[in-house]
Amino acid sequence: MNRISIGYVRNSRITQENSISTQKSLIKEYSKNNGIKLDRIIIDEGISGSGDKVKDRDGYQTIIKMVGDGMVDNLIVVSISRFGRNLGEIYKSVELMDKMGTKFHSVKENIDDSVYGRFVLNLLGSLYEMELSILKERTRDTLKVKKENNKVYTKFVYGFDRVEGTDDLIKNEKENKMIRKMLRLKDSGRSYGEIVNYLNRNKYRNKSGNKFTRGNIYGILNRRINENYSYVG
């Protein structure tokens, strides 16, 4: 299969600085100066580079498929921001290029296949990991506050019901009675599997109306035993 070199340009609006024509000119100049035979330029015009818009970017999706099929030797963009604004999506795309032997070039950031270019891409990976860690930490803090204030923090909260039209929780006495039963079974030495078998044998059902699973029981009892929040009751 003959591998090709392609350029990618994108803008969010027609009047945006670094218009389509400007980006195309910069990519062609870069290719010429670096001895790259440019075969094709793919365009996404009037589309945001944010993560939630990535599925609407037909050009971007075409490129990712071509890279995955092993068709692309070089991919050239004017800047990383033109390729995308979601760090995670950029990093995953560059990882795919690395795996498939596609060289990623960014004109403004001077990213290429050099040691410096690889350093910048590794830095992107580190920033992506940091972004994920921060997001997870914020999620944990949000859940903690919701739990402490008896607010809905997941789709189903066994032992509580959601007050219609609000995020408030009120105790479900029947389910809390069942939780106390689970705790007694656990304290008597029963395994999670044995508790599951007991509940399903007696036709008890979880919050969604299905049979209990080991995961259900572990989650319910782990929260009740280890978390000292007001929602525990």
Describe what this molecule looks like in 3D:
With 233 residues, the protein is α/β, with parallel strands linked by helices. It contains eight helices and six strands. Strands 2-1-3-4 form a four-stranded parallel sheet, with helices on both faces. A two-stranded antiparallel sheet has the order 5-6. Helix 1 (20-33) links the parallel strand 1 and strand 2. The radius of gyration is 27 Å and the shape is elongated. The termini are far apart. Residues 227-233 have low confidence and may be disordered.
Give the secondary structure arrangement, pairings included.
Elements: E1 4-11, H1 20-33, E2 40-45, H2 58-68, E3 72-77, H3 80-83, H4 87-100, E4 103-106, H5 115-148, E5 160-162, E6 169-171, H6 173-187, H7 192-201, H8 214-226
Parallel strand pairs: 1-2, 1-3, 3-4
Antiparallel strand pairs: 5-6
Helix pairs in contact: 4-5
| Strand percentage | 5-15%
Q: Report the radius of gyration as a whole number of Å.
A: 27 Å
Order of helices and strands: EHEHEHHEHEEHHH
Task: Characterize the biggest β-sheet.
Answer: 4 strands, parallel
Residue windows where pLDDT falls under 50 for at least 5 positions: 227-233
**What structural class do helix, strand and pairing data support?**
alpha/beta
Helix content: 40-55%
Spatial order of strands in the largest sheet? 2-1-3-4
- Number of separate strands: 6
Name the average pLDDT.
78
Please give the alpha-carbon distance between the first and last residues. Answer: 66 Å
Total helical elements: 8
Broad shape:
elongated
